Amino acid sequence: QVQLVESGGGLVQPGGSLRLSCAVSESIFSLDILAWYRQVPGSQRELVASSPRYGSRRYSDSVQGRFTISRNIAKNTVDLQMNSLKPEDTGIYYCNGERMSPSTLSYWGQGTQVTVSS
Read out DSSP for 9-31? Predict the structure, then answer.
């Protein structure tokens, strides 16, 4: 069972920056996809950014150009650098890891709260 633990959330003013980090209990390269999702009350969890083991990183339209997902080999984490934050970025951010073979398994962290407010 892969364990994911998020950290780095908090309160930030509009226009500010935060860096989220997700510690992975196994090698980050043992997972085919690492991603960050966001959820606000009353809404479904939405994909914010993903980092496949092979291929290009992807971002939702709402964060493209402002957020960057990266795999930190030294720390064995997947990080999300969030710049130019907006109030609509507020939500609980979840780290997700998927393994595709021999069957698809999905792992989730417990989430970390991000609040963008003045």
Answer: -EEE-TT--EEEEEEESS-GGGS
Average pLDDT over residues 62-81: 96
CA angle 34, 89, 37 (to 5 degrees): 20
Pick the closest to residue 34 from 84, 94, 79, 98 (CA basis): 98
Cis peptide bond prior to 102, omega within 30° of 0: yes
Please state, as a whole number, how many other Cβ atoms lie within 10 Å of the Cβ of residue 48. 23
**Average pLDDT of the residues in 1-8:** 95
The whole-angstrom separation of Cα 24 and Cα 78 is 8
pLDDT at 59: 98
In this prediction, residue 1 carries a pLDDT of 86
